[in-house]
Amino acid sequence: RAQRGVLLRDCDVIGFDLDHTLCRYDLKETSRLIYESFAQYLVEHKGYDKDLLNLTPTAWDFCATHGTRDLSQEEIIKHYGPKREWKHFNSLNSTFTRSAKYYFYDNYFDLPGALLCARVVDVLNKRGCEVTPDFWKDMVAAIDHNYNTSAFREDSGWYFPRVKRDPGRFLQPCSASVRRWLRGLKENGKILLLITSSHSDYCRLVCDHILGKDFEDVFDVIITNALKPGFFSLIPQQRPFRTLVNDVEDSEGLPGLEKPGWYSQGNWPHLHDLLKKMTGRVEPRVVYFGDSMRSDMFPAFSFGKWETVMIVEEMEGEGVARANPAPSQPAEKKSKFEDQAMKTPSAASQQWGSYFVDVQRDEGGEERLRLTWCSHCIHTYSTMAIPSIEAIADLPLDYKFPRFSPDKPSTTGYYPRPPDTLLKREENQS
Ligand SMILES: *[C@@H]1O[C@H](CO)[C@@H](O)[C@H](O)[C@H]1NC(C)=O
Ligand SMILES: *[C@@H]1O[C@H](CO)[C@@H](O)[C@H](O)[C@H]1NC(C)=O
Q1: Of 70, 48, 50, residue with least CA distance to 61
Q2: What's one GO MF term for it (predicted)?
């Protein structure tokens, strides 16, 4: 792969994930909503302790532990061995697949579920119950109850009904600059794709709200219920594309993609054939924007050989502006909740520290700054990282972005600039 910079001008196709990529969410409101939608289910349908519904604002700082409590050094060694290695790490590290042995929480839709699991462990501990993995099946049932294929249409569960009633509370409309940018890409002959694992009905609600009623004119191809990462990785057992009538998938799969339009499920090779036809190129040049390492970056990079741009909102927790100049959004809406102390999920965690750099002390008490696993993955599987689409929307198409590369400093590839802790690490090293 060429080590040169990336220019959107040189790409034929520009693809986007929807949630947390084109559509920014109010992270405080949605995290709370997702947490509640699962917790309500456990309490009302599975008889769990009502205490799960009460969260202090500081609980949101959480990432992963035994319950919400940190493990002691002895406990870590007891459970993970003297080398402190988690035995499933290698399969996660190289494939990002899910497994019966662990669940990989990797995006803002998932994270509140991790907090809920930890709180369930707290509740079991408090009652003196043995903690076994049995509660996991109830978590899976909670996901199904809230997010299954018909939940949106049937207004069932706790998630969709509330977003439908008050989308402005959870979804942030694209700025005028982002809408202009999308139109500009089209006018410059780019093919625009939307590839989301959300279902068509929810996708329409989100796009109506963030882009306007005519959002379908913006995209050449819209793919919903894409079931990423399988969309990219399931070869040769790929799922066919399906047509949609009134948001219902045709039972019969398509043998291939003939023309642009709105489809469901599908697979990367059939999309690739269509893109070849549309661009008249043997190897269409595709750049793809997404927020998930597991569903977007890793598979689009590894299987699709696409250029990948990762949306990393955590950059905003480390001194990077969301857009330049700062957007004239109404300052933090006053929430109906008393959430003044609730931290934004993208801010650095008190309990865990930076998302990008891990501070460790060696024997002599010297500070050692090491890349976290998350930043290692970002640098390996994405071409570049930005805090939001807005951050690049005012740049000309021939702007040349530096790309991540093993032979360059780890700070290269972040636009408009690297997060604070990575800069600090770079200074320490030189
Ligand atoms: C989806 O979940 C709702 C609420 O639990 C349930 O009534 C409905 O039958 C489920 N639908 C499917 C297709 O699983
Ligand atoms: C796994 O992660 C570590 C960083 O935590 C990295 O050094 C190593 O190369 C990774 N392995 C693969 C296959 O990516």
Answers
A1: 70
A2: metal ion binding
Select from 83, 376, 410 the residue to mutate for testing ligand 2; criterion: most ligand atoms less than 8 Å from CB.
Answer: 376
Query: Backbone phi, then psi, for 75, in 5-degree steps?
Result: -65, -40
69 has which bridge partners? 66
Nearest to 159 by CA among 337, 333, 38, 25: 38
| Cα torsion 114, 315, 350, 52: sign | negative
Residue percentage of the chain with pLDDT more than 70: 95
Residues identified as active-site: 17, 19
226 closest CA partner among 183, 288, 310, 162 = 288
DSSP tag of 167:
H
Distance CA 373, CA 60 (A): 21
**Nearest ligand, CA 147:** 1
Instruction: Choose among 160, 228, 302: nearest CA to 18.
Output: 228
Going from the Cα of 90 to the center of ligand 2, the distance in angstroms, rounded, reads 8
Tell me, yes or no, if the pTM score tops 0.85: yes
> In whole angstroms, what is the distance from residue 210 CA to residue 267 CA?
26
Q: Which long-range contacts (CB under 8 A, 24 or more apart) does 305-311 make?
A: 306/15, 307/6, 307/11, 307/383, 308/381, 308/382, 308/383, 309/382, 309/383, 309/384, 309/385, 309/386, 310/378, 310/382, 310/384, 310/385, 310/386, 311/20, 311/21, 311/385, 311/386, 311/387, 311/388, 311/389
Residue 29 pLDDT exceeds 90:
yes
Which one of 156, 159, 247 would you pick to mutate in the ligand 1 pocket, going by the greatest count of ligand atoms within 8 A of its CB?
156
Q: For the chain, how many residues are written?
A: 430
pLDDT, mean of residues 195-206: 96
CA gap 240, 237 in Å, rounded:
9
The dihedral formed by the CA atoms of 404, 406, 411 and 413, expressed in degrees to the nearest 10: -10
CA–CA distance, 90 with 14 (Å, rounded to integer): 32
Distance CA 55, CA 36 (A): 10
**Ligand 2 atom nearest to 94, measured from its CA:** 13
Position 380 pLDDT exceeds 80: yes
Our CA angle for 318, 73, 132, nearest 5°, is 95
